User: Fold this.
Amino acid sequence: MSKFKRTLITTALPYANGPIHIGHLAGVYVPADIYARYLRLKKEDVIMIGGSDEHGVPITIKAKNEGVTPQDIVDRYHEIIKESFQKLGISFDVYSRTSSEIHHETASEFFRKLYETGKLIEKTSEQYFDEENKQFLADRYIIGTCPKCGFEKAYGDQCESCGTSLSPTELINPTSTLSGNQPVLKETKHWYLPLDQYEPWLREWILEGHKEWKPNVYGQVKSWIDGGLQPRAVTRDLDWGVPVPVEGTEGKVLYVWFDAPIGYISATKELTPEWETYWKDPETRMLHFIGKDNIVFHCIIFPAMLKAEGTYNVPENVPANEFLNLENDKISTSRNWAVWLHEYLEEFPGKEDVLKYVLTANAPETKDNDFTWKDFQARNNNELVAVLGNFVNRALVLTQKYYEGVVPAAGELSDFDKETLASISTIKADVEKSLDNFRIREALKNAMDLARLGNKYLADEEPWKVIKTDPERVKTILNVCLQVTANLTICLEPFLPFSMDKLRGFLNLEKMDWERLGDAALLPVGHKVNTPELLFEKIEDSVIETQLQKLENTKKANEMATAKAAPAKENIEFDDFAKMDVRAGTVIECEKVAKTKKLLKLTIDTGIDKRTVVSGIAEYYQPEDLIGKQVSILVNLAPKSLKGIESQGMILCAENADGTLSIVSPDKKVKNGSEIR
RNA sequence: GGCGAGGUAGCUCAGCUGGUUAGAGCGCAUGAUUCAUAAUCAUGAGGUCGGCGGUUCAAGCCCGCCUCUCGCUACCA
Assistant:
């Protein structure tokens, strides 16, 4: 760390529309916490920053649905999140929030600086406006008929029925959900950050200058830069967020992605008047701990913002993790498929470290990983209990039994004694090397090797036998065991802080700096240790079964929810229906459309003519299987060009709950061109 | 389809700039042991390193094609 005098650790700001789950923890907070604790133990100057991200449209929607204010929503989740972090022992130096006054000021200032120094560009575009409420409408506040599937309650950004992503102007009969009126298109002015101008700098800074970044991060960044960067809007028409600090911009706020990372700066300000040292001194090393979904923001957009501002440092490294799955399925807040931290803390009191341990031992550092309750149980029982807890217990119980808890003096050390004690320093170096390279999982494994070392030493020396023949020698053996135990309290402190605190209690020992690790005389001769309790307890099958049952119930509830058919659309007149001309037709040719995943190009004999239709069914049908098959085709749908092919009609399909498509065919062969009605 | 990341023992993962018999933890088998929450320690079995081809004296590591998983993106008349 020659170049740097201090470290600023930021952790992705959790979005305050739901609680924290194990995926967040494994990806961001647990590794960041371990790293921060390690640096603190080394007496380095380090601060760890966190906070809730409280702006953005999803929060306003949730508020509206519940009939409360956005502030109510974020107050609720901010408290839950903050409290659960605190209980798990995530050691933020400050945990702030973006709805705070200090953040509004900081974000405003930041924007003003960019605005005044000409780093932003202005653009005017047309967006939907609700005249009754006198405001521009976020995409989600507009519903209308989906132009693709005809679903009448499609949102402005996506149709819930067919899954298509939309823009509000594509909706037929758009309606404002605020007033129920038809919104009008109105010009609106916004500011953009011209990311494209930063491309050469980004190339040099990251692609040339940071080849040491993790492959997943580096590759992702390269992909974005090579793909060409576009100017990105930094403001939005919305009333929830940081108001744009420019005259005549009522009803505009900073876009949430712009204000959220500035939250790191605000939080630092809240923590210390020295905040500028942490952000602007070139001798400060900034690290962003994030999940892979955030790579583009932290490696491209936020650095470009900082660069544009001109006085800030950019990150030295961005150790992004991949995703954690749960029991072979993606973690999902909306599907409630998660292990929620606040629930875990209630259901597993005193087992904070166990969760951290399991999430670290199986951290998704290089690829997506899977959390299973069975693995959770196995790691607890076979590693924490059997290896670590057991060794500590053996050393302490023997000390009580033979010496009433008083640390015996070591006599002359055998070669094996010396070797064992010397190994502590080797382990220290291994742990350091792993942590310095953000290989947290490997670091934990290395640290646990110290406990393994202890078990091996005991098994080889067999003090319970030697006590009968050479009681003097046993003093040395137990002194060594106790010194190893004492060293554990340092070595595992970053990973298992609560447990090491407990262990220090057994040993009657103060917390010690990292530098003491390797010292063979941490416990002075004659020191009195306490009667030990169990450091970890076994987790029984029934506890695991309860958790699995809980997940099983969630799964059932989800199935019930998705099995529920969409409600019927509004009634229509027969004449409306009669406008649709659906015919039976036979597929005569069929091939995949090049460079697409979903599209098939079909030639259909409709009885009227032979025509080309492009259909998004390639994921469910092989072209050769369709030839000769009779299908239903809507023949009077306006033609549309898709991937350069004119599609003249639409093949009717039934969509299953899981999204798979089935072509609707006549029950018996009929003459091509037969009307379907 | 494009781009990125991954596919190494039953499971979770290491394998540095290519170099002798491919490693760890857990699980499994056998043995030792009883101080300890039947915990521990030792030994062993188990791998065509996703598939095919190529470069090389030599490839898990380099190149090409294919395949599967995850993410971003295009796309669903």
About this structure: The CA atoms of residues 111 and 245 of chain A lie 8 Å apart. Chain A has four domains: 6-118+257-330, 122-191, 372-516, 574-676. The first strand of chain A starts at residue 6 and ends at 11.
